[in-house]
Each structure stands twice: as structure tokens, then as C-alpha cells.
Design goal:
This protein has 418 residues and is mainly alpha-helical. Helix content is 79%, strand content 0%.
């Protein structure tokens, strides 16, 4: 039966993708194409691609695509609504035609993915417009700057060691900067997308992705100005710091996947313990958040360069301490560097593992020491800025995370030993 239906697969895929996009366009009163037109155009694309490939007619597919575009332009002109040019629907219909052609050539997964993205862009029009309005000029510049440092600058850097102990590899160093900047900028943009009034949990999640330190200090300052915001601030801070753990798991998977089986049980323990405290905080706090978060754009060039310099310094310090003190020197560096930034020392440990200078267990332990040191620093900062009212519940949550990390590490080691 499957073999008998195989020839119909391109046509059925085109029909499904056309129905998906057409269903969304049907909801728009201004659109001149909807639930019937889009599937027909998708099938038109499939048939055109079939005829072109079967009869060696090179001009058929481009001519059919032009015909689709011209037909939509004429339809909107005849409608008489000069204010509505139908550009979005026209482009969606032409893309639907090409998705049909892709289906004929067997690119089912790519065509389906593009259809889902197209439908999402059409459906979330208001949210995207609101997101664009919330972006400042500096935010747009930061995105453009990130593209420059990642796509243009990174391939130009040499991939070999320089400096003391040959510990500074420009390519790998900047790759880490791009990785951290990309994660932080993505979290910041998500925070902009949902807006500051969409709920405390989302603020904590996206604030943690953007910068857990900035989120912690921002809400601590808000509590200092208004003690009534303590409940919301505590919840956001705890969620943001729990989010550091899956963020580090992603970094580990990208940079040194072989360390992940050793590190993951500890991170999972921290998430479980911290998540339990977060659930308690969510139950206790008021239903409506009392404040909004204002996190600086982590994609700014100064932030990227600052992290790059910090990472380079950590690399040199770790190399020096490891040369003088052995593995204990790496732990000492983790305790000091982790006070201000977890990412730099964590990436250093993963890089050392990749160069076979430390084993997976040591790399995982260095990451955990850095996390605990960072929690201590942020807990002290909350106590100094906001006082006891916020410090006590935050310290309780931080302690739970630290205990969960330790328990998870021990259990993971025991299971691995068996």
C-alpha cells in the first residue's frame, strides 16, 4: 500500500502545506486568497515542477511563478482598495507555489519547516509589530553588530595558540564570545518579544537567558525602591538563576559534548531542587507581578568585548595556576572567576577538556564550583542592595540549588561507577 501511494506523496504534501497556510490567510478579511487558493497554488507548483523536469522545459516553473504573482497583483487592483496592496499575501502565495515545487523534488522536511515558519509569521502579526515597536535603535544596532562579529569576523581569526602557555587561541576565544553573546541576545530579544507585563515566570526565564546577574541585581534594586515588590522579585530571581543550569548544559553540549553525561546529573539535581523552591514561591506570591524588568542589551559591543577580555584573562590565569598548582589551581581559579561570571570559567574548563589537559570529572567539578561561587556573589549582592526581606528567601533558593548540584553530582558518580 505504501509503495502504491508513494507517487502521490508530493501532491499530498503540497495539499497539506497549502491548507496550513491558507487556513491562516482565511482569517484575514483583507486577503484575496485563502483556504481554497493556497492549496491550489501549492498543487500548481508541484505540477509545474513535474512538467518541467519530465519534459525538460526550463522556462515553465519561472513563468508559472510570475503568473501567480501577476494574478494576485491584478486581484488586489480590481478590488479597488488602494490602501491595501496585499504584499504579504502575494509573497506568501508565491512562496506556497515554490513549496509545492520543492515537494515534487523530495524536499519534504524543508518545505514543511518553511510552511510552519510562514504560517507563524502571518499569524503573529500583532505580536511581531509590537516587538518591533519595543526595540530601540540600540537594540537593532546590537543585532547587526552580532551578525558582524559572528559571520564576518570569526572566519578571519587564526585557529592556533598565542601568548603565555599558548593559551590564547583567537578563533576559539571569539567563538566563545559569539556563543555567549548569541544566547544572551536571544534571551534578551525574547524578553522584548513577550514584553515586561506578561508574567513573572516568563520574566525569570528570559531574564535568566539574557543575564541572570543583571536580572538579579535589577530586581534587587526594585525591592530597595519599593519593598512591596519583594514577592515578585524573589520569584523572578530564583527562576533566572535556575535557568543558568540548562543554559550551561547547552554550552556543554556545543563545546564539549563528552563532558555532558558527567555534568548533566548535577545540573538536573540543581534544577529539581531550585524548581521546587520556585514552585513554593509561585504559590505564595500574589497573582499579579508588581514590577517590570529592565535588563541592559547583552548584545552591545562593550558587553561582547568585556566578556572576551574576561575570558582571555581567565584562560591565562587558569593556565598559570594549573602549571604551578596542578588541578587544584583550576579549582582555585573557578572559585575566584565564578564570583563574577560563570560562563568564562566554564568554557575554559570545557576547552581544557577538549585539549585533553583535564578529564571530564574535573571539568564538571570546575563548572559546579563556579556556579556555587556565582550564587554566593549574587546572594551577597542581594543582601547588600535589598536587605534581609529579599535576601533570606533568595539565599534559601540558592542553597537549594547548591545542594541539588551536590546531590546530583554524587548520584551521577555512583551510577557511573556501577
Amino acid at each position: 500500500m505504501t509503495e502504491q501511494l508513494a507517487p502521490l506523496h508530493p501532491y499530498l504534501t503540497s495539499l497539506a502545506l497549502g491548507l496550513l497556510i491558507g487556513l491562516e490567510r482565511q482569517r484575514s478579511r483583507a486577503a484575496q486568497a485563502g483556504l481554497r487558493t493556497f492549496p491550489l497554488v501549492a498543487l500548481f507548483g508541484t505540477v509545474s515542477a513535474m512538467l518541467q523536469s519530465g519534459h525538460d522545459v526550463d522556462w515553465l516553473l519561472p513563468a508559472a511563478l510570475v503568473l501567480v504573482g501577476v494574478t494576485m497583483i491584478v486581484a488586489y487592483r480590481d478590488d479597488g482598495d488602494t490602501a491595501n496592496t496585499g504584499t504579504t499575501t502575494t509573497m506568501a502565495l508565491m512562496l506556497c507555489f515554490l513549496l509545492g515545487a520543492m515537494s515534487w523534488h523530495g524536499h519534504y522536511q524543508i518545505a514543511t519547516g518553511l510552511a510552519l515558519v510562514t504560517t507563524a509569521l502571518l499569524h503573529f502579526k500583532e505580536e511581531l509589530h509590537g516587538f518591533a515597536e519595543r526595540l530601540s535603535r540600540d537594540d537593532v544596532v546590537a543585532v547587526l553588530r552580532f551578525i558582524v562579529i559572528s559571520v564576518l569576523l570569526l572566519p578571519l581569526l587564526p585557529d592556533r595558540g598565542f601568548g603565555p602557555y599558548e593559551s590564547l587561541n583567537p578563533y576559539r576565544l571569539w567563538w566563545m564570545v559569539v556563543l555567549i553573546s548569541g544566547l544572551s541576545l536571544g534571551g534578551y530579544m525574547l524578553l522584548k518579544l513577550v514584553g515586561p507585563g506578561k508574567g513573572v515566570p516568563l520574566l525569570g526565564v528570559f531574564g535568566g537567558l539574557a543575564s541572570s546577574t543583571a536580572t538579579t541585581l535589577s530586581f534587587a534594586r526594585q525591592v530597595k525602591a519599593d519593598a512591596g515588590q519583594a514577592a515578585a522579585a524573589r520569584t523572578v530571581i530564583l527562576i533566572a538563576n535556575v535557568m543558568v543550569l540548562p543554559r550551561l548544559a547547552v554550552l556543554c553540549a556545543v563545546v564539549a559534548a563528552a563532558v555532558l553525561p558527567t555534568l548533566l546529573p548535577a545540573l538536573a539535581g540543581g534544577v529539581v531542587a531550585g524548581g521546587a523552591v520556585v514552585l513554593i514561591a509561585l504559590r505564595e506570591r500574589a497573582k499579579r507581578p508588581d514590577g517590570s524588568i529592565e535588563v541592559g542589551n547583552p548584545g552591545a559591543l562593550r558587553a561582547a568585548l568585556g566578556f572576551g577580555l574576561l575570558y582571555a584573562l581567565v584562560l591565562v590565569v587558569v593556565a598559570f595556576l594549573q602549571d604551578r598548582l596542578g588541578q587544584s589551581g583550576v579549582y582555585a581559579a573557578a572559585a575566584v572567576a565564578g564570583l563574577t561570571d560563570v560562563d568564562a570559567i566554564s568554557l575554559t574548563a570545557l576547552d581544557l577538556f577538549g585539549r585533553q589537559q583535564i578529564d571530564a570529572g574535573t571539568a564538571a567539578n570546575v563548572v559546579l564550583v563556579a556556579i556555587v561561587a556565582n550564587l554566593v556573589f549574587k546572594g551577597a549582592a542581594v543582601a547588600v542592595i535589598a536587605g534581609r526581606a529579599l535576601a533570606r528567601p533568595v539565599w534559601l533558593g540558592f542553597a537549594a540549588i547548591a545542594v541539588g548540584l551536590g546531590v546530583g553530582r554524587v548520584l551521577g558518580a555512583v551510577v557511573a561507577g556501577h
